[in-house]
Write a structure and sequence with these properties.
93 residues; alpha+beta; Hypothetical Cytosolic Protein, Chain: A; two-stranded antiparallel sheet; 30% helix; YlxR-like_sf
């Protein structure tokens, strides 16, 4: 009898939907205080998960959900950088 593997779920800070971890993009506040996208999902630091869509990023920015999840203020230029990286990502599987 084959065991069924449990799929890890995470909640998107934008749309608040639970989705499989592999479908979401991780945003990390590194120990140095930098805020970066983490395509591997393994970087050290405090993480928040986001659907790889501009709409979810906009909602997260508007509600300051990303700032709350990462427990830090996020400057506008970092929001722009994240938006460029997300939109440029071929992450829509």
């Amino acid at each position: 009898m084959q065991r069924v593997r449990r799929v890890p779920l995470r909640k998107c800070v934008g749309c608040q939907e639970m989705k499989p971890k592999a479908e979401l993009t991780r945003v990390v506040r590194t120990p140095d205080g930098d805020i970066v996208l983490d395509p591997t999902g393994k970087r050290n630091g405090r993480g928040a998960y986001l659907c790889p869509t501009e709409a979810c990023l906009q909602i997260a920015v508007k509600r300051k959900a990303l700032e709350r999840a990462l427990k830090t203020a996020i400057p506008q230029e970092i929001h722009e950088s994240l938006r460029r990286q997300l939109v440029g990502d071929d992450h829509a599987d």
